[in-house]
Amino acid sequence: MSDSLTSHLAQLEQQRVEALLTVDTAVFDALHDPAYQLCNPTGTVWDKAEYRRRLTTGDLAYSRLETTSEIDVLTSETLAVLRYRCVIALRVDGTDIPAHECWHIDTYIRADDGQWRCRYSQATGILPAAAG
């Protein structure tokens, strides 16, 4: 894995995150595979169309989506896995969800046209450590 590919994939992920915050549908469409699926911290799975619909209608609105760690990247010629921590605050179906920390794992595939697109995303909430 080259440092340039690792850097490129981390930059794509930052662009994808920014597109979610700003609801940039052109970037959203370009960086998400047609078969994209998100598994959010509640365990709900949304396909690309549902995720896009929720963003564009305001049923889902991120007020904060901030990467708080380095983006670790593992890659082969056609598959990459990115993992990092972030802080998220959002509104879902009219309910505000306050800022909380999550782990994100995103799987990218290199399409036939040579472009990398996100295929799967999973966000896992990080619970506060229990007092011992």
UniProtKB/TrEMBL annotation:
Database matches in InterPro entries? DUF4440, NTF2-like_dom_sf
**Protein's name according to its UniProt entry:** DUF4440 domain-containing protein
Pfam families given in the database record: DUF4440 (PF14534)
Q: Which residues form the DUF4440 domain?
A: 9-118
- Give the species this sequence originates from: Amycolatopsis roodepoortensis
